[in-house]
Amino acid sequence: MRKLKLVAIVAMLFTVVLAPLVQASEGDLKAELRSVVTDVLDAKEVEEINGYMDQIHPKSPLYSTAQQRIGNLMDKYDLKYELSSFSYIGESGEFQLARVSQSIRKISGYQFRDRMLDGIWIFRKSGEAWKMWLQVTLKKSFI
Q1: Contacts of 143 (CB under 8 A, 6+ apart)
Q2: Which site among 18, 48, 83, 119 is 20 to 30 Å from 138 CA-CA?
Q3: Element at 16 (helix H, strand E)
Q4: Which phi-psi region, left, alpha or beta, contains residue 131 (left: φ > 0; alpha: ψ -120 to 50)?
Q5: Which fold has domain 2-142?
Q6: What is the DSSP string of 41-65?
């Protein structure tokens, strides 16, 4: 009987005290990851290469080529980036995953078709900050 009461008390404590803390920390994590996405898109839009590179994990497979690729893109186009949706997927080891949809529209530059990209963004911590590790495009549609 005592064990049953103890189990009931522990379950109640978890429900009342710990569960909200877990939900709050997951909410904070989602906000942090979403912030990385918006910082990446904002840096690309204002053509701030250093700001863009600051959001990529330094050990990411993207890191070595990202500066050249984004620099070439910025030289050719003036683009408007907009986050359409962000949905946290979950954790896999040291990585966090989210599904991200974004629109990219040409303001000026060479021939460019406006588009929607739907993909998975993978994040990994660098020190205390979450950084973009990799992104995989699942679907591209022209708008």
Answers
A1: 103, 105, 114, 115, 116
A2: 48
A3: none
A4: beta
A5: Nuclear Transport Factor 2; Chain: A, (3.10.450)
A6: HHHHHTT-HHHHHHTB-TTSTTHHH
**pLDDT tens profile 67-114:** 899 999 999 999 999 999 999 999 999 999 999 999 999 999 989 999
Question: Could you tell me the sign of the dihedral formed by the alpha carbons of 53, 88, 139, 42, in that order?
Answer: negative
Q: For residue 24, is pLDDT > 60?
A: no
Token couple for 51:
């700001």
User: CB of 121 within 8 A of CB of 100?
Assistant: yes
For 65-71, the CB contacts below 8 A with 24+ separation are 70/44
Residue 103 near residue 78, CB atoms below 8 Å: no
Higher pLDDT, 80 or 1: 80
Which residue spans within 14-114 are E strands per DSSP? 77-92, 95-109
| b/e burial code for range 68-85 (CB count within 10 A of at least 16 → b) | eebeeebeebebebeeee
Q: What's the predicted TM-score (pTM) here? A: 0.81
* Strands of the sheet with 129-142, listed across from one edge: 77-92, 95-109, 115-126, 129-142
